Amino acid sequence: MSLQQFINEAVSPWMKEDGPDSDIVLSSRIRLARNFAHVPFPIIASEDQLGKILEFFSQEFEHQAFGDYQRFELVQISDLKPIEKRVLVEKHLISPNLAENTDTGAALISQNEQVSVMINEEDHIRIQLYYPGLQLERALDKASEFDNWLEEKIDYAFDEKRGYLTSCPTNVGTGMRASVMMHLPALVLTQQMNQVIPAINQLGLVVRGIYGEGSEALGNIFQISNQITLGKSEQDIVEDLKSVVQQLIERERNARQMIMNQSGIKLEDKIFRSYGVLAHSRVIESKEASRCLSDVRLGIDLGLIQNVSKTILNELMVLTQPGFLQQYAKKALSPEERDVRRAELIRERLKLEKE
Asked: At residue 246, does pLDDT exceed 80?
């Protein structure tokens, strides 16, 4: 898969597959932070040292295959236009931090975009592996296998007492961040999220927005992940996170049922009003589009809307972001132009879905 395919397709191939509890859990992700043993960490390394790491990945892993993950492509940040970088961030293939590393940053991306290895971000290596729905154990198994594959050619920075050594002390130990992306509209509507978030934080987990630290929960989508990486095994971390996620799933489903029982007609009206906005608006801002897409997805999950697939909504959640809108238009757009183009694009996609 070429760079153009990475940035032109809004939905990664793996996202088109269904997964357990996918009405609420959009995806599961395992991220592993690793560093070379005898190279200074990126925060203090010279450009020459980081350049050699980039060259190593290009020589050893570009165009290689691992298991089901075919033909890895190395995308260098220095080769990307600003809009292209933004698109890759919107697809979660690179982080905002990596997008700023225009000298030695890169990403090694599998053909189906399920695996992305960020190179010379905060750490030398950050492996990301995704699965649809709630599949944390499976994602951990595959990420560990992939990690072992890399380690056949890389001597990792590792301490017998502390575990994997990383630039940020909060990642020392397993170097792992396990996370799930969840759609929780009913908990937001019933104002339960205000109670849920502090309770989750007390369990050593953190709740963030759709693009991680410092981002908003657009479209009622929240990212739940572990904070503790030291003193627990990878399996224990995943098990603790899964336990909390399963409780959230149950609470969200109960809240949906409660709203349907107590205010069914009002909820139905809210959902179909949002559908009407998406289907007929000529101008729509990003936040309003995300909110309406969330309502419509809830309507699909509750069986109220029959003629729209969740795949289209997943696509539109990405396709209507600023980077993708401009990539789709093949030119830079002002905020006002993006709002017009966003509305037009949503109308087109919903119309195609009906045909």
From this structure: yes
